[in-house]
Amino acid sequence: TQDRSELFREVDSISIVNAKWLEEKFCYQGPFWSRNYRFFRNKKPLTVIREVFNPFLEHWLGPSDIHKFASLSSSSS
With CB atoms 3.0 to 4.6 Å apart as the test, which of 4, 5, 9, 73 could cross-link to 16 if both were Cys? Predict the structure, then answer.
């Protein structure tokens, strides 16, 4: 472990996104849940990741009720 450095993750935001290209990839009509988070190494930002969740996850996790929050969504290209 001497040559390894530890990474830390910090979630910056959880959001709802609408994008035609996501609808095409997921074969599902949006909106979609997403989150942005940053990785840090040695207390310095390393990278930012935006993760969009496939609605098929609801098959295992149960309903997300995203349509209750649809008025808060934004467009993404």
Answer: 73
